[in-house]
């Protein structure tokens, strides 16, 4: 590695410090302008926050897939966005069928549960096949190789699903019971947002239980720590790796359905790309390889995306601030990589994994 | 028939010829010491037996079955358990979770009694059962590594330098423990640089030199052997 540092002065450190100051300044000035102008009421802030949490919990579910796989293989599965798409896209047809028969609105919870299971299984299958066909043969090769393969697999999955279901956009049917809002302390919160947040939370609790309490969960942690010793315990590490991909896939598929309930529009073969990158950002934000980190990182990113443009960008007089959500997300990614590459909760990247 | 028969194995790391035709056998109920200096191939021998590495030539038979191409995780259920060099505890798992992992192959079995046995052998571990293994001292980690290896109820226990890096007071304890485990019917293959202690508890021993067995004899005779005394026991 290059050593830019000299004892007295380092241009890199200096530039980073200047950047730091500028960013803090921009955030403070922007926020101050917005808040003092009073353009946005407290109720509106709360609404933005709630919407951000819902969106963030979807990011979190997808981010867990990145982090689980990274934790065990030190590999970033860049085709994970497509794993999400596979479940979301496939299940739109099931949702339409359930809607036609009226089951979706007669038994909404049961129907959604069914959809989540279906999407979960589809995504799980795709993730497991991906591991088996694309990644396993490359295990032990230089890190760039599976990365390139992941990009290839990504395109393959996109066009395979385009071939399967066509290139048009589809939309999830509306679930009537989730329309409308409930008033909490005088502030209207859309029911669908509460539903999205709670179901994602429930899935994350299940994951937590799986990883912390079950035999296979302990084996996942053991394999992630030391594969050779894990084998000496009698653990079939190929199975554990496959299982890990499967769990990540299941969560991504269920996120696909929850996302479809939250934002029904825009289901097509390309739908995994942006959420994939956002969720990857969330995983890095939280500290990649760290499970609670991915959960927090997802929620954090969702909230920042919802609040940031209105609070900071609008305050700086940037027009159309709300359209700049994606910019916020990717700026966050860059900032985290510069200032805290290990993420919010992680310490590992710098330690041995970088 | 011996429990373990290692027959003329050649094991490589890439082009490095680490084992150049090693043969020996271990009978059921024995404690066998494998001694040798740094780089002699002791660890490689154990890794080959436990299935972490496959020999390019030669065979390993366990209980009459050829196992040199059998995966390590499958050998554990057949009764071979290994305490790796440097202990290899899972630092981010608790003590009890480490022990659970030791019993991984015994799915469905009742582990309560076995945990009790492990804690009876090493009471220190019980006090710390909910603690992360990474917070244990070196000696405690060694106890955990041994207790964990016993959780699979092995017939053959492979120990790779269990006394390494331990204070002299603890070293005696480790060898006493090994004897105790043997007295309960577990066959032991003990790799050690501490030849003095190893030969005191062993029935027979082999001296490994640059990937080959140089001397094999009973432990008592090895202790009297001039070469062994000079090279490994520090007696002139
Ligand atoms: N991962 C590896 N890659 C290449 N060569 C290796 C590797 N591990 C061991 N070797 C070589 O194989 C030979 C045997 O090593 P081994 O680890 O079996 O020795 P050892 O008897 O266990 O030594 P020690 O007492 O230091 O643990 C040595 O020459 C060593 O340099
Ligand atoms: Mg060694």
Features:
heterodimer; A: 354 residues; mainly alpha; ABC transporter involved in vitamin B12 uptake, BtuC; two-stranded antiparallel sheet; 2 strands; disordered C terminus; B: 236 residues; alpha/beta; Rossmann fold; 2 domains; six-stranded mixed sheet; four-stranded antiparallel sheet; 10 helices; 37% helix; 26% strand; binds adenosine-5'-triphosphate; binds magnesium ion
Task: Kindly describe this structure.
The complex is a heterodimer of chains A (354) and B (236). Chain A is built from 14 helices and two strands; from the N terminus they run H-H-H-H-H-H-E-E-H-H-H-H-H-H-H-H. Chain A has 354 residues and is mainly α. Chain A has one domain: ABC transporter involved in vitamin B12 uptake, BtuC, CATH 1.10.3470. Chain A has a two-stranded antiparallel ribbon with strand order 1-2. Chain B has two domains: 1-79 and 154-236, 3-Layer(aba) Sandwich (Rossmann fold); 89-151, no CATH class. Chain B has ten helices and ten strands. Chain B has helices at residues 42-50, 72-78, 95-102, 112-121, 123-127, 138-150, 168-183, 195-201, 219-224, 226-231; strands at 4-13, 16-26, 31-35, 57-62, 65-66, 80-83, 156-160, 187-192, 204-209, 212-218. Chain B has a six-stranded mixed β-sheet with strand order 6-7-8-3-9-10, sandwiched between helices. The longest helix of chain B is centred in the C-terminal third of the chain and has 16 residues, at 168-183. The radius of gyration of chain B is 17 Å and the shape is globular. Magnesium ion is lined by residues 42-43, 85 of chain B.
